[in-house]
C-alpha cells in the first residue's frame, strides 16, 4: 500500500513537471501553469447530466479530469480525450491505455472521433473542456464550441471552466450558435481559483 502511494506521488510529480515544461514552451496554448486541482475536477464532474455515460474531454493535459471521469464510472470505451500537445498526448496514452485518446486540435473533433472509432457508438452526453477558451479568438472559440455541439446529443452540454470573471465563451458566439450559459460552482482551492460554466442549446435548458 505504501509502495503504491509512493508510486502515485512520483507519477503526479512527473506529470506536473511535464505540464510545466509544456507551459514554458507554449504558455498561450497550455493556458495554465499547473494542472487543475482535484476540487475543480469534482466541480466539473458534478455538472454531468444525470445518467451520462458517454463523455468527450477537450485538452486532457496530464489527465486530472480523465482520472476523475473514470473514477466517476465512465467506461474507458465511452471516453474520448483530445489533446493537441504531442508530449501530453503520449503521457495520456500511457496513463489511460483503454480510453480513446487522440492527438488533435479540438476544432477537428469530428474527424478525431471518427479516426478513433468513438463515434460508432453514438453521440456524447457531455463535453468537458479544459481548454483556455478565454485566450482564444472568437473565430477559434466558435469553431471549437460548434465542433463540440456537433458531437453531442440534443440534450448534451458543454462543461467549461475559466479563471476569468464571466463566461469564457463570448456572447456573440453563444448567440450565433443558439446556446446559453449557466454559471455553476467555483473551485476556490484551484490555483488560480476557477469557475465552472455549463453551456446548453437554448431549447434544452
Ligand atoms: C489549461 S490546460 C488544462 C489541462 C487539464 N485538463 C487540466 O485541467 O489540468 C489546457 C490543455 O489544452 C491543450 N490544448 C490547447 N489548445 C488545444 C486545442 N486547440 N485542441 C486540443 N487541445 C488543446 C493544451 O495542450 C493543454 O494541455
Describe what this molecule looks like in 3D:
- A hairpin with a 6-residue loop joins strand 6 and strand 7.
- The relative contact order is 0.15.
- This protein has helices at 2-25, 27-30, 38-45, 64-72, 86-95, 109-115, 138-150, 171-177, and strands at residues 55-58, 79-83, 100-103, 124-129, 152-162, 179-187, 194-201.
- Helix content is 40%, strand content 23%.
- The N and C termini lie far apart (45 Å).
- Helix 3 (38-45) packs across helix 4 and helix 7 packs parallel to helix 8 (171-177).
- The mean pLDDT is 93.
- It has a single domain, classed as Vaccinia Virus protein VP39 (Rossmann fold, 3-Layer(aba) Sandwich), CATH 3.40.50.
- It is an alpha/beta fold and 205 residues long.
- The chain has eight helices and seven strands; from the N terminus they run H-H-H-E-H-E-H-E-H-E-H-E-H-E-E.
- A seven-stranded mixed beta sheet has the order 3-2-1-4-5-7-6, with helices on both faces.
- S-adenosylmethionine binds next to helix 2, helix 4 and strand 2.
Amino acid at each position: 500500500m505504501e509502495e503504491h502511494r509512493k508510486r502515485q506521488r512520483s507519477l503526479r510529480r512527473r506529470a506536473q513537471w511535464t505540464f510545466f515544461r509544456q507551459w514554458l514552451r507554449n504558455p498561450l496554448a497550455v493556458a495554465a501553469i499547473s494542472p487543475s486541482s482535484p476540487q475543480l475536477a469534482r466541480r466539473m464532474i458534478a455538472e454531468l447530466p444525470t445518467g451520462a455515460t458517454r463523455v468527450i474531454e477537450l485538452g486532457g493535459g496530464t489527465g486530472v479530469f480523465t482520472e476523475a471521469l473514470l473514477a466517476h464510472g465512465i467506461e474507458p470505451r465511452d471516453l474520448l480525450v483530445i489533446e493537441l500537445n504531442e508530449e501530453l498526448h503520449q503521457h495520456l496514452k500511457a496513463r489511460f491505455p483503454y480510453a480513446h485518446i487522440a492527438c488533435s486540435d479540438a476544432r477537428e473533433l469530428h474527424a478525431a472521433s471518427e479516426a478513433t472509432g468513438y463515434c460508432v457508438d453514438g453521440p456524447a452526453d457531455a463535453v468537458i473542456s479544459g481548454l483556455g477558451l478565454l485566450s482564444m479568438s472568437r473565430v477559434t472559440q466558435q469553431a471549437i464550441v460548434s465542433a463540440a455541439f456537433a458531437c453531442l446529443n440534443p440534450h448534451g452540454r458543454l462543461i467549461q471552466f475559466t479563471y476569468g470573471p464571466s463566461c469564457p465563451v463570448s456572447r456573440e458566439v453563444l448567440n450565433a450558435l443558439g446556446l446559453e450559459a449557466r454559471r455553476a460552482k467555483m473551485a476556490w482551492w484551484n490555483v488560480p481559483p476557477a469557475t465552472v460554466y455549463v453551456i446548453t442549446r437554448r431549447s434544452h435548458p
